[in-house]
Amino acid sequence: SCAPPQNYPLYIRSIPTENELKFHYTVHTSLDVVDEKISAMGKALVDQRELYLGLLYPTEDYKVYGYVTNSKVKFVMVVDSSNTALRDNEIRSMFRKLHNSYTDIMCNPFYNPGDRIHSRAFDNTVTSMMMQVC
């Protein structure tokens, strides 16, 4: 999922879809954790072009990862805890792909920043990443 600095999700996607409400809650909670990490880092954040926050917190079922752009757009990724094949550098790489795809959306003159994301290209990026993880 991704969210602007105002902390409302612009895009949430989950597989399987039956747990979608649970993921919405997890994402909202995670955005608060991202804010806490950002404020804890303070000035160090300003000096970086992008920031991979790493594991925000683990739950019994999931691992929640965070990433924030230089314009304070937040990305959150929730991965099944049983998936031990994913390494930190792969998660970071996935966030970079999401960031690049999001940048493409922002460059579209018909997209109003802050609107929900409805983009086939972004969907395809997310789908390919989900297929890679599952």
TrEMBL record:
A Pfam family found in this protein is Sedlin_N
Q: Where in the cell is it found?
A: Cytoplasm, Perinuclear region; Endoplasmic reticulum; Golgi apparatus
Q: Which GO terms describe its biological process?
A: endoplasmic reticulum to Golgi vesicle-mediated transport
Q: Which UniProt keywords apply?
A: Cytoplasm, Endoplasmic reticulum, ER-Golgi transport, Golgi apparatus, Transport
Task: Give the InterPro entries listed for this entry.
Answer: Longin-like_dom_sf, Sedlin, TRAPPC2L
The protein's superkingdom reads Eukaryota
One GO cellular-component annotation of the UniProt record comes to: endoplasmic reticulum
Stated family: Belongs to the TRAPP small subunits family. Sedlin subfamily.
The name on file for this protein is: Trafficking protein particle complex subunit 2-like protein
- Organism per entry: Nothoprocta ornata
Name of the coding gene = Trappc2l
